[in-house]
Specification:
Layout: E1 5-8, E2 14-17, E3 21-22, E4 28-30, E5 48-53, E6 61-64, H1 67-75, E7 78-79, E8 97-98, H2 110-123, E9 127-132, E10 135-136, E11 139-140, H3 143-155, E12 161-162, E13 169-171, H4 184-203, H5 216-226
Helix pairs in contact: 1-2, 1-5, 4-5
Length: 227
């Protein structure tokens, strides 16, 4: 953590204080501005981006090697609603939804994020992964598996192999979570997932007057997977 204070609670435990604190009349009790040597960024450039998803058709980890596909999969990020969002009455909070780049609070056109993420992958060589933190088929992916994947990516010891015959996608062999491409049911589930993403992109052409529609290349990247 950066720019954090600390205090000791009633049990004698050291607890981080992550926010500025003021008393009732607005006077500062604790502020990051008091530190002369504070920093607001890390000097190391970003080298990896991970889309955290919940998608029954995807194994615990997918490596995306095509910059366009990496960006469009972030734009079609499958997830569940959080308690931070205002949910209309009757809406199932546990239902899977597409939330572009996991940001429900965007106030600008979606293509701005799309092109910026694409530039990171294409121009700066940033790696991109999907990590499924939900279920693969009917089996829950435990946190221990997720943590092990992240450690191997960070340590650069992860071994990836082609994800079926899908171009630009690779995965890891993880016991109990190996996709069976010869299984017709799995093939249909995976196909439906990609078709749902394409349908979502189509819906953006009408939603909000088309403000958030993405370029043709985004559709083409997903359609290439279906073929």
């Amino acid at each position: 953590m950066q720019n954090c204070g600390a205090t000791i609670d009633a049990e004698g435990k050291l607890v981080p204080v992550t926010e500025d604190i003021r008393n009732g009349n607005g006077r500062a009790i604790k502020s990051k501005l008091w530190a002369a040597n504070r920093v607001d960024k890390l000097d190391e450039p970003i080298n990896t981006i991970v889309w955290l998803m919940k998608d029954h058709a995807l194994p615990p980890v997918i490596k995306l090697e095509d910059p366009v596909l990496a960006s469009v999969m972030g734009a079609c990020l499958a997830t569940k609603r959080t308690t931070a969002e205002k949910i209309l009455k009757g809406v199932d909070r546990d239902a899977l939804v597409f939330e572009p780049y996991a940001n429900p609070f965007r106030t600008y056109a979606l293509e701005q994020d799309y092109y910026k993420f694409k530039a990171l992958f294409q121009e700066r060589g940033v790696s991109c992964y999907i990590i499924n933190t939900g279920h693969f088929l009917d089996r829950k992916i435990p946190k221990e598996v997720t943590i092990a994947i992240i450690e191997q990516i960070v340590d650069e010891t992860a071994v990836f192999k082609p994800f079926g015959n899908l171009p630009g996608l690779k995965t890891m062999d993880i016991e109990g979570f190996v996709p069976k491409f010869k299984d017709k049911g799995y093939e249909e589930l995976l196909t439906n997932g990609m078709e749902n993403r394409i349908n979502y992109l189509v819906s953006l052409k009408e939603l909000k007057g088309g403000r958030d529609q993405l370029p043709r290349e985004a559709f083409a990247a997903l359609q290439k997977l279906l073929k």
